[in-house]
């Protein structure tokens, strides 16, 4: 089966009605007009897409304080590095946090398990994708932090830290 499917069902007009309705209420009370596009607190956060993580609340931040990048496993990918270059040179970022978390599926599953689960749920063969699973979470966090520190397109000396967020307690500890 081709990775590009033309058989996907067309979008129904009601598939997003709940979030569009919520957006209408949000827009009525919208208070962020005029907010500058820079990170007011000079912070960039790379974290997981896990719904149990609320980056702004977790760090005592407000909208506009930080640049937030999320992906599966809080991995430092080429795209994250590209985004950090823009953030540090153009958007006021002066320090970077990589925040992994406890009970992360990316740190507890094998590639075969992920491929099999996706194939069972959808019939799509995803063996060609690199899901960047995490064997040793703390070692991977340290490697990802080092990847940022050594990337030549960031300003020299930008502080970079690796942290682990506990999804059961809300506590954050520095690991790298």
Outline of the structure:
By secondary structure, this protein is α/β, with parallel strands linked by helices. Helix content is 31%, strand content 16%. The chain has a five-stranded mixed sheet.
Poorly predicted residue ranges: none
Strand content: 15-25%
The H-level CATH homologous superfamily, spelled out, is Carbonic anhydrase
Query: Percent range for helical residues?
Result: 25-40%
Which topology does CATH recognise? Beta-carbonic Anhydrase, Chain A
- Tell me the number of strands: 5
Q: Domain count, please report it.
A: 1
Report the structural category.
Answer: alpha/beta
Protein topology:
Blueprint: H1 17-28, E1 43-48, H2 55-58, E2 66-71, H3 78-90, E3 95-101, H4 111-122, H5 137-149, E4 160-165, E5 172-174
Parallel strand pairs: 1-2, 1-3, 3-4
Antiparallel strand pairs: 4-5
